Amino acid sequence: MKVRWLGRVSYEAGLAMQEELVAAKALDLQREDELLLLEHEPVYTMGRTPDESSLREAQALPHPVVKVGRGGQATYHGPGQLIGYPIVDLRRRGQDLHKHLRDLESVLIDALEEMGVKAGRRDGLTGVWVGGRKIASIGVGVRRWISMHGFALIVGGSLEPFTWITPCGIAGVEMTSLEREVGRELSVEAVGEVVAAKFLARFCSVDNADV
């Protein structure tokens, strides 16, 4: 498993890199899995669904909208968020997309616990929560059982752009950040190191070996 910190990149550049890596992995199944960690320039993304009501008035949004091939409704990405794109061969993990989503949630929950924040799940909803506040969103896509897209953990930055949409299609949801929960400023890259360690521990463990 290779982990790479890319710094801040546009959403389009991050998507192009994912597509390139997924295509290369599909041609060479022995190619190692990768986890890309980065921040994005401000952007709204919309998953593959005919119901785009979570965007509200798309033409009035303060940042561009990109429609992508992941599950889920609208969300916002911007500076201060840790974005993680796992390019993982799920055939080696039982071809179970539900388990993949739960594993990503567990990685973030474990990382947040190490940083002093008690987080968890909410029944029927994908993502990670601190009490009733959402701190991380997850949306994935799969091509030939190779995963792309992934998670967005809100470390810091402005939460105001979320107020323009219905985040993840959940009416009345309150978003929060790691900085808000711990009461101090944090480096996105440093938080990424904690998340990467938890990711490697779960995805490279015996429990996740070939099935």
Main features:
211 residues; alpha/beta; BirA Bifunctional Protein, domain 2; 4 helices; 11 strands
Number of helices: 4
Query: What CATH architecture would you give?
Result: 2-Layer Sandwich
Give the CA-based shape: globular
The helix/strand series, from N terminus to C terminus, equals EHEEEEEHEEEEEHH
Number of strands: 11
Structural class: alpha/beta
Helix content: 25-40%
For the CA atoms, what is the radius of gyration? Answer: 16 Å
Layout of strands and helices, then pairs:
Elements: E1 2-9, H1 11-27, E2 34-40, E3 43-46, E4 65-67, E5 75-77, E6 81-87, H2 97-114, E7 120-122, E8 125-130, E9 133-143, E10 146-154, E11 174-175, H3 178-182, H4 188-203
Parallel strand pairs: 1-2, 3-4, 9-11
Antiparallel strand pairs: 2-6, 3-5, 6-10, 7-8, 8-9, 9-10
Helix pairs in contact: 2-4
Descriptive overview:
There is one protein chain. The chain is an alpha/beta fold and 211 residues long. The protein has a single domain (2-208), classed as BirA Bifunctional Protein, domain 2 (2-Layer Sandwich), CATH 3.30.930.10. It is built from four helices and eleven strands; from the N terminus they run E-H-E-E-E-E-E-H-E-E-E-E-E-H-H. The strands form two sheets. Strands 1, 2, 6, 7, 8, 9, 10 and 11 form an eight-stranded mixed beta sheet that branches. Strand 8 (125-130) and strand 9 form a beta hairpin. Helix 2 crosses helix 4. It is globular. Residues 206-211 have low confidence and may be disordered.
Short description:
With 211 residues, this protein is α/β, with parallel strands linked by helices. Helix content is 27%, strand content 30%.
